[in-house]
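Lab notes, practical 5.
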Amino acid sequence: MSQVHIDGGSLGAIRHESWKATARRIAKWLCLAAAPTFAIMALLTWTLGGAPDVLCSVSGASPLGGMVPMYLLMSAFHSPPWLRLIANRR
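Output from the prediction step:
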């Protein structure tokens, strides 16, 4: 991005760096939202009963089929930010 210079100053550069720092902080905390969201979705699907897999003709053929295991796997795949946060606190 280009910098805006006002009277020889670099006010635009300061605003740009401030925006980048804010975006990094938001991204850092936003990545923590995925794992608990998928875990909650798995719990709700399991307790309330999810809709049957209409598109899958062999639904129920595998114990790993369905939405609950998929949500649990997605929660596990999105857990590294939480593990890093826990490791850095110790």
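Observations recorded by the TA: The chain has four helices and no strands. Residues 40 and 71 are 9 Å apart (CA to CA).
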